[in-house]
Amino acid sequence: MTASLTLENDIALITMDDGKANAISPAMLEALNAALDEADAKAKVIVLAGRPERFSAGFDLKFFAAAEPDQVRGLVVGGGKLAFRLFTSEKPVVIACAGHAIAMGAFLLLGGDTRIAARGAYRIGANETVNGMTLPAFGVELPRARLNPMYLTEALAQARMYSPDEAAVAGWVDRVVEPGEVMAAAMAEAERLLPIANHAYGRNKRMARQPTIDLLTPTLEL
């Protein structure tokens, strides 16, 4: 299994769980987009969660090692489109991060509206510079839109990895709770947002994010 969906009280809970690090692979992308299709059709609020101690470790590096260049680019663009889909969703998007969120996993956090993380010895951030990788456009513009500007150079160019409490200061997440409270806090936030999960919510969110949307839209083509 890579991703599953449950529906209750107009809330769609999408859970990533590949039994490992929740790497973003072609299979994970396909499962997440299918779940989001169903959530868009049937729910008013979306909650995206990972498995305990692992939200997502980022792109599947084993796939990259064996793939052709066009396949690598396809997966990177697909990851960007997924984060962009969350970022532009008309519905409220709550993210429950119960562990590590690294590289593409951290960029998925930036697509959410309310991001709740577990306190603990977890790492959150973008480590591309350490790996000698240049960030794609979405890996710059989403952080520019969501991170505290004072931390942008440290977070991207210097590849700083943050504890959850540090990540809340930098802007990767909004709130940190004890590990056993993450899902309850995320579902409570989803319930809080239900009364305003209307067309105005989507329009107002999009207007607030329009400059980033305009910059990213032409970059997410194969």
What about the largest sheet?
6 strands, mixed
Distance between the termini: 27 Å
Number of helices, where a helix is a run of at least 4 consecutive DSSP H or I residues: 9
| CATH fold-level assignment | 2-enoyl-CoA Hydratase, Chain A, domain 1
Class from secondary-structure proportions: alpha/beta
Strand order of the largest sheet: 1-2-3-5-7-9
Please tell me about this protein's structure:
The protein has nine helices and nine strands. With 222 residues, the protein is α/β, with parallel strands linked by helices. It has one domain (3-219): 2-enoyl-CoA Hydratase, Chain A, domain 1 (Alpha-Beta Complex). The strands form two sheets. The protein has a six-stranded mixed β-sheet, sandwiched between helices. Strands 4-6-8 form a three-stranded parallel β-sheet. The longest helix has 20 residues, at 69-88. It starts with a strand and ends in a 6-residue tail after the last helix.
Using brief descriptors, characterize the structure shown.
222 residues; alpha/beta; six-stranded mixed β-sheet; three-stranded parallel β-sheet; globular
Q: What would a concise description of this structure say?
A:
By secondary structure, this protein is an alpha/beta fold. Helices cover 46% and strands 18% of the residues. The chain contains nine helices and nine strands.
